[in-house]
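User: Could you check the structure of this?
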Amino acid sequence: MFSAQVTRYQQWPENAQAATYWIAADETQRNNLQFQTYADTVRAALGPTGLVEAHSEAQARFTVHIEYGSPREREWRQEFVDPYMYPGFYGPYVGFHHPRWAWGMGPAIQTVAVDVYRMTLSVRIDDRTQQGREVYRATAVASSRQDQLGAAMPYLARAIFDRFPGRNGQVVEVRYPVQ
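Assistant: Sure, the predicted structure tokens are below.
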């Protein structure tokens, strides 16, 4: 299962059915193949919302901005220690005293540092008919022990527009079966 947390804010206009949008690239995203691929994924996720892509930026009512990343962070997790590999588990005295187990044998838990990638997709939609006022902002975040932003992007984009536009200030957990 793919799991992500989505935070969204919206003041979606009522008269926006079948309105047009344009995905705008900032200076660092122009001529960037990764951005173009992720923009295609966002386009596919926008389809079910009823919005239609404009032929040019000038014809679009909404401007869509995309940001993404997968920064590596250090996280502390508790894990069971393998009893066969733990030193002293089967020593000369069965029933020795160990600070984690007390008397006798049992599972030991240790706290270890692990690297985690926070794969994120943020989408902001501005309404040009309201002087570029922001009308939708959502961020989807998923964690993984491996940097797999490309594989996660279709799920993150789907999560951003799941039950679009949603309630303002809403934080939801979404889960999708991985295909």
